[in-house]
């Protein structure tokens, strides 16, 4: 299928957005006390690392970071498609009583975030869960909203938004793909 | 990327290298769940799994049952003494009756080789082999391979010795298929009465004359149980003589690599195929095998549920 592709955010734009998200996160939580980052595999996990680095530049402190795989919590596993590969969930700390900031690349229907919240609750009872996303493209199917958004991008359902990463898992570009 | 399209898992012979690696990779992710406080994910909610065991089993049945429960499936266990087989019902009739209760997966252990292929043709649900006669025991081989991969971070190029009653061992056959597909070399040793002719044709397999030759410089030494319930009384003079020639003890374990892993599918006849010093020794991975068993079986149940009707 041929498709048209527009760049919505370049590397510098992504960096600025993540830096702003980091500042907002610090402001909202009045610092880093009790804050942990959990990235949703795989895009969100990479972005969580970048946010952790950005926070370290601002505050000089490293936030604990974990990765969550939501495959086993999806609401479409009972379909007749082959089951997807299950990635690793790595949360090397207790989330009990923590302020968890979930990180994902693109917020769309909200179903991934629902699955991620269910998965998180099986690891303990956090004090609160906040959501940070690089792109919010709309079309929510569940009552979910993000606390920190890099950029709001109005899209049609036929379009696709993708965050591209380089070999060292740094976000380099966000593209909007339109079928033509 | 590899996809798993099978609805049944009956043999490792039928699976490709990529499918085996996918199962092992999923199993590694499943293991994390088993170390949580809340050991449950909702993935197979609403699915019904019947554990149909025509032969006694502690490890495999418990492990399959826990695997199903940790994926939120409902399980029912049928053991030999409680099944209608004791009243003379045929496997075919039992299968059709169970099917009328709409299970999604039947996990079966049966003394007759090939009974799972027969069952899979009769039923519309998934069939998972938990051991059929002297044919295959896929979940055991997968958990063995997972335990080796944990230790060496690879399967390619490993020297694996399998020692004991090869003729009656479904564990040996499944391991030979799985290990040779993933690039290991298997060395077999056992009394000539327990070594099936032509076994080396199954893959990258060498039949050795004695224990020492098989475990020389091995990375893994896998000892098999002497299956006295299956073999006649004529295959070996007595357990003491077997232990002298084919039992693993601290002295002959020195022929293997100094950091070789020792494995056993259980249940162990202490003092026969392995001395207690080895079973409880530093090189023993017997309990790691059991731990990985739950994760591997979760991966198998998860992937067959996404398989296609064949």
Task: Give a structural overview.
Chain A is α/β, with parallel strands linked by helices and 180 residues long. Chain A has one domain (12-72, 91-155): Rossmann fold (3-Layer(aba) Sandwich). Chain A is 26% helix and 31% strand. Chain A is built from 3 helices and 8 strands, in the order E-H-E-H-E-E-H-E-E-E-E. In chain A, the strands form 2 sheets. Chain A has a 5-stranded parallel beta sheet with strand order 3-2-4-5-6. Chain A has a 3-stranded antiparallel beta sheet with strand order 1-8-7. In chain A, helix 1 crosses helix 2. The mean pLDDT of chain A is 93. With 310 residues, chain B is α/β, with parallel strands linked by helices. Chain B has 2 domains: 17-136 and 292-305, Aspartate/ornithine carbamoyltransferase (Rossmann fold, 3-Layer(aba) Sandwich), CATH 3.40.50.1370; 138-290, Aspartate/ornithine carbamoyltransferase (Rossmann fold). Chain B is 37% helix and 14% strand. Chain B has helices at 17-34, 59-70, 91-99, 115-122, 138-152, 170-181, 211-215, 239-246, 250-253, 276-279, 286-305; strands at 48-53, 74-78, 105-110, 126-132, 159-163, 185-189, 205-207, 220-223, 261-263. In chain B, strands 7-6-5-8-9 form a 5-stranded parallel beta sheet. In chain B, strand 5, helix 6 and strand 6 (185-189) form a beta-alpha-beta unit. The model of chain B has no long low-confidence stretch (mean pLDDT 93). The chains are: A alpha/beta (180), B alpha/beta (310). Chain A binds chain B through residues 69, 72-73, 77-78, 80-83, 85-90, 118-119, 122-124, and chain B through 1-5, 22, 25-26, 28-30, 32-33, 36-38, 40-44, 46, 71, 299, 302-303, 305-308.
